[in-house]
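Handout, section B. The chain below has 105 residues.
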Amino acid sequence: MYRVAVITDPETATGFRLAGVEVREVASPQQTLEQLRSLLTQDYGIVAVNEDLMKGLDEDINRLMHGRDTPIIIPFPAPKAQLESGEDYIARLVKEHIGFYVKLR
């Protein structure tokens, strides 16, 4: 039986842990490559990797996976936070509660 792991940044790791997935936290593409190397020696069938942490590693990963069937490496898009300004946040809250938009100055 194969295991599943996720390689991602610390900000995203918590969500995967809450879902019960084994997570390896990394901060750079080089650390991602090191984690992939360590997972190759174990019984992992699928490794999902934050695509931002795979930038520039195409050739290295191809060499690493040459002649191997597992693990299957699945890149996933990194979530992009859509932060609104404090003014926009307050205006949205006012609209939700009183039913119309109020322009703040």
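Note. Residues 51 and 75 are 5 Å apart (CA to CA). Compare this with the example in section A.
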